[in-house]
Protein: RNA-directed DNA polymerase from mobile element jockey
Amino acid sequence: MIPPNTLTCITKVFNKCQLHHYFLPSWKIAYVLMFLKPGQSHKLPGNYRPISLLSNLRKIYEKVILARLKEHCSDLQVIPDEQYGFRPNHSCEHQLFRVTSLITHGFNNKLYNGGVFLDVRKAFDRMWHNGLIYKLIANKLHHYLIDIKTLFLRNRTFTVKLNSTISETGHIKADTLQGSILNPFLYTVYTADFPMSNHITNCFFADDTSTTKFVIRTLQLGLIEIEKWCTLWGVAINSDKTGSVIFGKGHPRNNLQSLTFFEEELSWDKEVNYLGLILDFKLTFRSHI
Structure:
């Protein structure tokens, strides 16, 4: 248990930090431990999972800032309704139900649904700091929150410990720091302006009354807009994990025009793994079972 006097002192420190738009430099130091992933070679750096040890006071302060961010973003309607990640009363199960309901609706009404499932490469690790600050300003968040987040992102350092060896101090120039509870919500703000269309449902679907041609054309136009957005905001898509499926009962699978994304051709798949659920083009769930 923390004594009441200590809690009062911490509260005063946090209030002063918010009043003066401040984030302590000592809270921006991360001590990173490296853990080898199971069954992987210890010789390759990519086979290690980094775990950042952060100040406990910093984590409590982040919770206070997170509550303020959520409140203001809710009031300003920054986060789109299509975002089901990192939001209260929203989950992977809700998003899966939404997607399968959309496909089922198409089946019941003899519609085709085309889906493109994109995988962002190292989403948190490559978040562009200046781009995030710009979006916080563009969404008209309170100045004290923007100033604190700017200090939070700037001039952060880390040291890596592997066994008994400690590295030199490094500077973090991208991402929002693994281990920070602000990471997920900041990422939803960063991607809140993801391209949208009247004919596309974001988790990236298109539908048509009778033909696949309109579906494919609509998806291709959507992919072009997403290319522009990814290029502008420095978001990398993992093409190896990107899948595309035409959902329909007994639809022709031959001679379908391929989609292209960043000059790479996307083949039409019979099934795709989405949030841990295998969706086949007839939605039978046989492969998943």
